[in-house]
Each structure stands twice: as C-alpha cells, then as structure tokens.
Amino acid sequence: MSSGTTSLTRRERRAQERFAARERGAWAPRWFWPGFSAPATIYLLVFFAFPFYVVMAVTFGSVDPILRQPVPAWNPATWSPAILTFTMSNIVHSDGLYYAAFINTFFFVGIATFLCLLIGYPFAYFLARRAGRFRALFLVAFFAPFWISYMLRMLAWISLLQDEGYVNKALEKLGVIAHPYPWLSGKPVTLILGLVYGYVPFMILPLFATLDRIPASQLEAGRDLGASPARTFRRVTLPQSRQAILAGFVICGLPMFGDYFTQQLLASTPKTRMIGNAIKDSLDVPIFVQRGAALILVLLVILVPAIMYYLWSTNRAASEITA
Amino acid sequence: MSTAAGIGSAPRGGGLREWIGNPWARTRFLWVVGIGYVLWSLIPVAEAVLFSFNSGRSITRWQGFSLRWYLGDAGSVLHDPSLQRAIVQSLKLALLTSMVAVPLGVAFALALHRWRGRGAGSANFMMLFSFVTPELILAVSLFLLVLNVFRFIGLGTAGQLVGLVVLSLAYPVIIVRARLFSLGNSYEDAAMDLGASPTRTLTRVTLPLLGPSIFASAAIIFAFVLDDFVIVNQLSRDASTETVSIAIYAAARTSPTPAVNAIGTIMLATSTLLIVIAASVYRRSARRRGEAAGVDALG
User: Fold this and answer.
1) Which residues does chain B have within 8 Å of residue A15's beta carbon, measured at their own beta carbons?
2) Which of B61, B87, B141 should be substituted to probe chain A, the one whose Cβ sees the most A Cβ atoms within 10 Å?
3) Yes or no, beta carbons of A259 and B136 under 8 Å apart
4) What pLDDT digit, counting tens, does each position of B146-157 carry?
5) Residue B186's Cα: distance from chain center in Å?
6) What DSSP character marks residue B65?
7) In chain A, positions 81-140, which contact chain B (CB-CB < 8 Å)?
8) Phi/psi class of residue A273: alpha, beta or left (left: φ > 0; alpha: ψ in -120 to 50)?
9) What ipTM is given for this predicted complex?
10) A153 Cβ partners below 8 Å, 6+ apart?
11) Which of the residues in chain B have pLDDT under 70?
C-alpha cells in the first residue's frame, strides 16, 4: 500500500484511477453511459415526440382545395383553430357527430375495465397464493394469450357466437334461452365481453406481480395477532395491492380507448361506435384527416392526466422499494 | 398461541355468510375462478385451431378432419399467394423490429442503470410514456409523420418498421433493467478491479451476463410483432405489405373460411415454438450461471 506511486506502471496507475473513480460511483468516463441512451432517446424524440407536433400542425393547418389533402401548418403563428373548434362542438353537443362515440367509449371502457378487475383480482390472487404445485401450469396458461394473436382469438369468438354457434347451442341446452341470441348483430354486451376478453390479461399482470410479492410472513403475522382472514385481507393484502389495481386500470383501460377493431369484428353498428372508430373512419377519407387529427389531440388531452398519474405513482413506488 | 391458531382456523366451518365475508379464504372458490378463467381464455383458441382442420367451408359446423385449408383447396394457405405473402411480411417485420429495437433498448437499459443525471429521468419518462400511450394514437401520429414530413419513409414496410420499433422499445429496456438490478454491480466491479476498461467490462462481462435476457426480449418482441395489428394496418401501403393479422381481420369481417384459422394456427405454432425455445434457453443459461430460475425477467 505504501509502495509509492512512482514505482507503479502506467497500466497500474490507470487501474488505480479507475478504482478511485468507481469508489466515487463513476467508473466510466462522464459521457460513457449517457452516450448509450442517445440512440433510443433520439429515436423516441423523432418518432414518438415529434409526431405529436405533426398531429397539431395537421389539425391547425388547412386542406388543399384542389388535391383535397391536408396541408400542415408548421408555424404555430399561422395555426387556425377552426377544425379543433368544430370537433369539440361535435363532441360536447348531444346531436354532434362524435357525441355518441365519446359517451359509448367511456361507458364501454368503464364497464369493461371494472369487469376486468372483478375477474382479474381473484384470478391473480389464486395464481399468486393458491395454485400450489400447479402454479407453473397456470402461469403458462395465463401467459398464452399474450402470444396468441388477438385477431385469432376474436375470430374464434366470431364463430362461437354465431346464431348456430356453440355458445347459443350450449345456452339452449342449459335452458337459459329458448331461441338463439343474435350476439353478432351489434350488441353492446358482445362488445363489452369482447373487450374484457381481450384486455383482462393486462389487468392480471400487475395484480399478480404485486400479490406474489407480499410475503407470506405478513399474512401469518396478521393471523397470529388475531385478525380474521377477512380482516387480514382487508388490512394487509388490499392496501398493498392498491398500487397494482391502479396500474391495472391504466394498462388495461388505456389501450381500450384506442380500440376500434373489437367493435368492427364483434358489434359493427353505428350504435356501438367508439372514439377509435371515429378516428379510424376520419383517417380513411383524406378531406377528414384533419378531424381525425383533432380527435387524436382531444383523446390525448383526456388521457394524459391518467398516464402522468400512473407514471408518477409507479415511479414513487419504485423509489420506495429501492430506498 | 393456541388461541391465535384457533382463530386462524376458525372459518373452516363454512356457511354462506362466512363465504361472503371472506371468499378469499375459501380455496374452492379460488380454484373455480382459476380453472374457469383458463378455460374461458383458452377454449376459444382451441376451437379456432380445431376448425382450421375442418373439412367443410364452415367455421361453426364441424364436418370432419382434413388438411384441405392448409394444403388442398384453392383458397388454402399453400395455394393462396396472398396468405403466404402475409406470413412472409409478418415474419419479416418481426425479425427487423427485433434487430432494431433490441440493441436500442439494451443500450438504453444499460445507460439508465448507470447514469444518474437529470437527462436519464426525462429519457426514461419518455420511454414509459410511449409504452402506455394507446397504440392508435401512435399509429395515427406516425401515419401523419410519414405522409407529411418523412416522405422517404412513406407507408409500407419501412413505415411499419419505424412504428413497431417505437411500440416495442420498452420491452428490452424493462427486461434488461430487471436483470441488471438482480445482477448487482459485483461482477462488473470485479472486472474493473482486475484492470478491465469500461468497454472491455461491458463486452466481456456485462453483455454475456445479460445474454439470456437479451435473447428473451428479442423473442418477446418477435411474438409481439407477429400479433400487432393497429400500427401495421395503419402504416401498410397495399396488399403487398399486409400481415397475417390484417388478413385475419379482413376475412373475419367478411366471410371467413377455415383457411384464416389455418394461417392463424401457423402463426400460433410459430410464436409458441419461439417462446418455448426462448424460455428453455433462458432457463438453461440462467441455471448454468448458478442463478435462481430466471423467471424474474417476466415480472
């Protein structure tokens, strides 16, 4: 240790410098790690953040009268709010173009998300606590829908729900219905069940991850201290899964706001139109692209608080764990 | 002690009131939920796969086993060039997206793990924001981007690739960060103590240790892209850039034949095979390194 720095070779001295740097928590040059984040950061800036500006430029731009194509206005000073005003008034007035789509979306997504929680919580609890030696099997079965094509799963329901399909046959055998129920003739109930079926894994994922992490010792402690199982659940398990319920609501509910294909496949009538359908339909017609862009902005403004709250709260939860 | 145990085991008696008071304690109810959920989520899939082998044109009435929708019929997978093109396009996009998103994501994860500056927080925030933004919003904004600004990208394979990378970038970041977190710093510290430079530590120690999780994230992205619909549909140019999910969607809205089930079954088999390979590779290498079973990357 006291051999003297002069006798060290250059190589040894460099190693020693690095050691000292690491002791300070920075064993690489200052630019080294930030440099690694640069490609992904630049990519996201160009292809995730910047496109929002393009959406605004299109919304506040104009339409070429001859080509009937939207012309984006790149300079915010020249932005015209006409289309946004038009879209907004068609959302808020009950006879507007988009009023029903917005009401439907909040109604369907609200019910579907709630049903997802109702189904997802007990299943996540089961998976985390009670599956026992079959746990691995149930885990595989649970993850399967994540790699089975959504479209294939919806196609399956389309055939199951036909008038002469197996669902109607089974219900008739059980005596629940006397005649086949026309599931696929634009029924909101079919759409809601389709949304639940499609998105419930996203609810279960955070719930399972959290319930699985609650140590059994805490539950035992609750019982040893005289709490009934119900009370243990209410006072130990439920408070700890609150964060996960919130996460589940966000990652299960948010994508439903952008869903239009489930409606198209299972309940394709104007009666069950959702925001996603309104956006999709506008984009298919060049002169209405501006309206689609305006709807995207409105949707974004509605959803950003939920996204921010979710990111903020998970960030806080993460820093509590690491602290 | 004995009283506590007595209270703990009290609700064994049964009764509706108790059940309502605490259904969670009753294992039987949870087993019904567990088995019921799995049946509900997988029986439709089994039905879809089964009907790909139907010998009739119907997707609701079983008329006997045959391979006509795979090999025989004029509209079968083997004889319908548009279905084959869809499979090729799906696989091409899945491969390309993994090749672009995995390196970007792994580098980003490494940076976030080490870099504690203000920029790190903002970059991470943007990545997570892109992860929870509804796909339709991403798809439409990218659609407007490639039509109005980056016209050289345009609609088609390049546009689809750009969008899919945005969509799947978060997977390697999350998976690799979880792995870095569980690995700790000791391996890298040891390498540095032994005189390795940062670059050498990275290439000889960190990346090999991350190998299984890098592979796992590539497999997950691959399977995820095969399944994607919204981005791929919005940014496709014409029939030549349609994927399997678009083909199934289009057919399901008009008059589906079991050929659609067949193409879906082929994709299902592909991604299942891929996930099984990824999981076994991940497990084997995790075990070889003396780690606990490597499922932590999934959580």
Assistant:
1) 193, 195
2) B141
3) yes
4) 988 888 888 889
5) 31
6) B
7) 119, 122-123, 125-127, 129-131, 138
8) beta
9) 0.85
10) A145, A197, A198, B44, B45, B48
11) 1-27, 286-299
